[in-house]
Each structure stands twice: as structure tokens, then as C-alpha cells.
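sorry for the late reply, my laptop died twice this morning and i had to redo everyting from scratch. anyway the thing you sent over, i finally got around to it. pasting the sequence first so we're on the same page, its 805 residues, then the predicted structure underneath. double check i copied it right bc i was rushing
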Amino acid sequence: MLKNYFKIALRNLFKNRLYSVVNILGLAVGLGCVLLITVYVIHELSFDKFHANYDKLFRVTESIQADGSIDTYATTYPALAHALGDEFPSIEKITHIYPSSGLISGPDNTSYQEDGIVFADSTFFEMFSFDFIKGNPATALEQPLTMVVTESIASKFFGDENPVGKSLRLKDSRNTFDFEITGITKNPPSNSHIQYDYVISFESLRQLRPWEYNSRYHPPMYTYVQLSNASSEPLLESQFSDFEEKYYGSDFAESSSFGLQPVSEIHLYSNLQNELSANFDITYIYIFAGIGLFILIIACINFMNLATARSVKRGMEVGMRKTMGAQRTQLVGQFLGEAIIMTLLGFGLSLILVEAVFPFFNDLTGYQLSLSYLASWEVILPIAGAVIGIGILAGSYPAFYLSSFKPIQTLKGQRVTEKSSITSFRKGLVVFQFCISTALIFSTIIITQQLDYIQNKKLGFEKEQVMIMPIRETANQFNVATLKEEIQRIPGVQSASAASGLPGIKSGIHGFMVTPEENPADSTVMQTLTVDFDYLKTLGLNLVHGRDFSEAFSTDENQAFIINETAAKRLGWNENPLDKELTLSFYVTDLVRKEGKVIGVVEDFQYNSLHNKIDPVIIHVFKRTFYHDYLSVKLASDNIRDITANIEEEWSAFNPERPFEYFFLGATFDSMYRSEEKLSTIFKSFAFIAILIACLGLLGLASYSIQQRVKEIGIRKVLGAQIGDIILLLGKDFTLLIIFAQILALPLVYIFMNRWLANFSDQTTVSLWVFMLCAVAVLIVSWFTIGVQSVKAALKNPVKSLRSE
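ok and here's the structure:
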């Protein structure tokens, strides 16, 4: 019997090729989208869970309270790790992670500027389960001047040779040292928030930069702990307040507090200041999972609509089978079997489509995803069950509906009409399809407009045509004025400025304490920029009060500050902040307190991305330090290539040992919204797929409706109805359904997209006409889909449709 069912199913598939192709293709596209989203979601949810003791691993965070607001940082300071280890026996292991950069030279003197360098304690590879190829993870970082490299770095410098025991030379901002390679690991997996190329023993800092090794002030580092028991986290956090008062004093304990953050939650749940790497948002995981589910539901609805649309043509078959003794259960089994076969064919085709799409999807996400993520029984069994379940669910309505036909009616050629409740249900499915499809399209419009708003919003500075050159060595930072003078002589260079940081570069701005002279109790942490005299001019910052720094004023280097509008408000200087006295406490090799007056106020400028509110910023000149990490050069709009070549010549003369590096400020700032751009592209793709599948469902419903009304159409034509009247008659009901779906979609979009826009400090205003234009476009596509069937029905000879009467 099963063999017979299988033969009949295949015969029907080949007999109705167009119907089969449309139905299987719709299922394949829907299942393919679900598979893509499933692989992506599995990857995102797996972040940092490959570590053997991931449930015991935590990152120490620091929250600082100022003016009623709390800022939480992912970084702490070097001395904290040692203090925690001494104080709490429940902490089993602890490590610093200190990102750095430098010029790495190999045995043949080949050099590369590398940014993937981290300093870490000897416990690093015991806490984090990165795969070792060579070396002992327990001892690889015990000694100073040792390092572990990834397999890609080993191949880059040593080819197929074994590099363990050999050396690489690191030249950082101040020193040059040789480091012995004690281990090789595989490249960190993409589902790790900790990425590295080189891991250098933290003990090396004693020789490289001893003032940073156990400092309580600077620089900020990441502190990770492994607890003896994951359940001891709440108890440990409750003991932090006493610990803070003991080690840092009561004043610190009142304004600052430490916390613990599970490592496995960092990627999806963390958006702190100074994150180690760019994180994702669990909200987007829910959104993608919802999109996948809705697309799958739409595909199933299409299956039912297209199958029942052909029910009239199979009515005679059902009547014959029932007359020959077939039971209803047998007919249900046959039709369900056909549905499952079509689902399996659709699933097979979806695997092919997914493999073909993966290269483009990987370019979009930046990962190397594949179907191998599904290659475990924990995933295979649910997918297999889901595919069979989809076949049963999608085929259930056609199966039970077709098997209910009465043989006498069908063999006489009488058409079986649906109950009004069933008709309403079918129309409700179409409304649901277009509601979801329209919501995706509307959401895509909002995302696109927000991205356009971000990229074109007045940021408070000029980001175009500004070249940025990193000044990585301390000796060069002290002498950067010489390079600046030579570059300013180049035709096409409008201005240049050396500074500690720039908008879009989070490493260059530092949080230091600012104390107003008139009210020391209002001390607050402000983002601090150390600059030279041409910073405001080069970046085009707008002064709203006072004046710029000037070498004509001898006190400007040692006793002058410029603040932004937010800083003035934070200090309570709303009326006239000029000449207000304050003290800036910042770190060089030790704590320095600089007293001076406010000489100017700049308009607020967007230092970070628009996800973040504008922070208070204080700007000062301090040429005697190593805080000039970047040289920014404002270029004329023409002949950029020639100007760049001339700047490179000046750099080679300035520092022939280090390769010329540069990037443009605009590109760096725009890169902060790369995740939103990816999100926009994904939404556009899935919105297009959803509307495509919905139109296939509409095609099925239109076909079914026309078949049910074929005699009515014939009578109307005999009575004088024109083709246009018939098309309008058939399209009117569907148009009302689609308009109703669009009306339902609007509140859904309003609720969810308002939550998304809340992640930005500034939001775009969405124009109503854009939604109206989009709604009209969806209607036009729908009319075209319906119109194809309607025109065929309107052109049909009424004699043929009325012959049986």
C-alpha cells in the first residue's frame, strides 16, 4: 500500500509540474531561510561556551556613580587582580587581559604592525580552552619574555618550521625585546569574544613597562576570574563592598563598585564602556528567530493554499477512490504522504540553496558558517522531526478537506463549496502572511532611514578628508611636532594636529577625574583629550563660548582647558563657564594634577557612536607626555593620492624603520555602524523573501477562488460584463485583505521598532509618505499576482464554463 501511495504521489507531482515546482520551491525557500537563521542563532548562542569551565568564568566590571547616573566599565586596573586573589579563596584562578599593539619582526627581519597582541597571566590558557597545537598550556606563560602565537602567525613568520623555542622581536611604543615562542594554538574560534594573534606573559610588563604592572590608576585592563563553584557568584559580589573599602578607602567605595559578569553572557547581553570586542544583542537573536518562524509559517500556509486550490481537479479522483472502497483514513494517509514527500523534496532543495548562499551570508556576517553547525544529534533529530511535522501540518488541511468530498457530488461534476468559517480561516491566513511581510518591509525602511540619518547627521566635527596616522612609538610622539611641520608644508594639506584620540577611536580618550575649584564635592570623571594647539581647527570643532588654544598665550599649555557643552552642564556651569577654575587629575607615569581655567566651550560633538549619549569631554594641551598617539591631517578634496604619496615620503624620512600607516576618519566613524548595515541587509533580504512567498500563497488563493467562481464569471460575461469588470470583481476582495493586513502591521512595527530606536541617542523621524509608498508598492505586486489569474479567467470562453449546466 505504501508503495502504491508513493507511486501515486510521484505521478501527481510529475503530472502537475508547475504546481509542484511552485509548491516545492516555496517550501525550499522557507526552509532554507530557517536553516540559515538556525545556523546563525546557534553560532551566536554558543559564544564562549566552548571553554571547559565556562560556567565558572566571570569578568570583573566596575560601576562609577556620578551626578545620579551610573557608568559601568568592562575594564578595571592592574592592581585589582592581585588584591582579589589575595582576599577571596573562592576565586580559583585569575588573569589580566591587556590588549596592546606593536611592530613584530621575524627571523628574516620581516616586520608587521600587529594589533592582535594581548598580555595575560600564566593561568590564561588554564582558564580559557583555546586549542594548543604545540607547547604546554599550563607553563607556556610562566616566564617573562615568552609568548604563545596562533597557527596563522606561526605560518606567516616560519612557514612549515616548528617555531617553538624560536624568537620574535616586539617593538612597542617605548622598548624593543625578543620573546621566546613557547606554544602554538589554533586561531581563536569566531564564537569567542577574546580574539588574539599573540599572547605575551604578563610578567613581561615588569621589564617593558614596570609602572603599569601593579598600578592602581592606569592603564585600564580586563580582569577575569574562575570561581571554584559557579554558585558562589552572589556571595562573592556581596563581599565586594567591604573589599573596596579595605583596599581603596571609603570615598572610593561610595562612588564605585565592582561586579561579576558571566563570560558566556558577554557577547549577547553586555554593552559596557570599553568592551574588549564588539558585541551583539540578544534582541536581534529573538528578531531573527521570529523572522525564521514567520517565514516558515508563511511557507506552510502557501502549501495549504496551493494544495486546496487544486482540490477541484482532484475531486473526481477522490470520488472514484471512495466508490472503489477506499476509506477516508486511507485517503488522508495518501494526501499526507504526498505532503511529506513534497516537504522532503523541499528540504533537500533547501540544503542545496543554503550551501549556495553561504558564501554571501558569510561575507555579510563576517563568520565562516556552514551546515556543519547542524551536524549533531541534538540538532539533527529536532530538524528531522520538524520537517516531518511541517509535512503533516502543511498537508493536514488539504488531506482532511479533500477526503471529506462526497463521491456522488464529485462524480456528477458538482463543485464542493467550503463552509464560510473555512473560507474566513483561509482569508485569515493570507492576512497573516501579508501582515508579517509588510511589517518586515516597514521595519527595513525604518532601519535604512536610521542608518542614513546616522551617516548624514551633523556630528559636531568634520570627518571627511581627514587622514589619521597612528604614532606608535613614544620617541616619535615626543618629536611629532617635527613631522607635523613638514607635512603642513605639503600642497593640499590644510592643517594637522597631534592628539591622544579622535572621534570613533575608543582607545584614544581616557576617563580622568575633574574637580571644580568652587565646589570640590562635584568632582566627576570626564573623557579627556590631550591635544596640541591645532586640534579644534583640524577637526572643525565649533566654539560656542570663549577662544581656541593659542601659542600666543604662554599659559595655555599648563593652565587652560576647553570643555564641551555637556561638561559645562555636568559641572553646573549653565550660564558662563569661562574662567571657571578646575583641577584635572590624569596619569603619565604617575598621577599628575593640573590646575587651570576654562578658556572655551565647544559644541557637543559625537565622540562615540550614536548608540551612546554624549559624554562630558575636557580638552587640554600637554606637549611633554606620550599622549600624542595620532596625527590627523586635513586634506584638500582633490589630488588625495598625490598628497598621500608626499605624506608617505615625509613619514619615511621621519621613521624609516616603521611602515607608513594611515586611515580616514570618515571610514572609521562609519565602521561603528557596520552591524546596523548588516542588519539592514538581512532585513531587506528576508523581507523580499517573505513578500515573494506571500505572493505565491496569494497566487494559490486567487487560483482557488477563481475556480470556485468560474460559473459565476461565465454568467456575468454572458450578461455583458467586460473584462475590466471581471478583473475588478476578482481583485476587490484580495485588495481589502491586503489593506487590512497592512493596517494590522503598523502597530506591530511601531512597538518593536521604537524599542530598537531606543538604542540610539538620536533617532530619525520616519515620514508617513514612505510607508504609504511602500504600502502602494505591495498592493501593486499583489495586483500583478492576482491579475495574472484574473485575466486568464476573464478571457475564458463562458460557453465552456457553463456547458455542464
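The mean pLDDT is 83.
thats about all i looked at so far, will dig more tmrw
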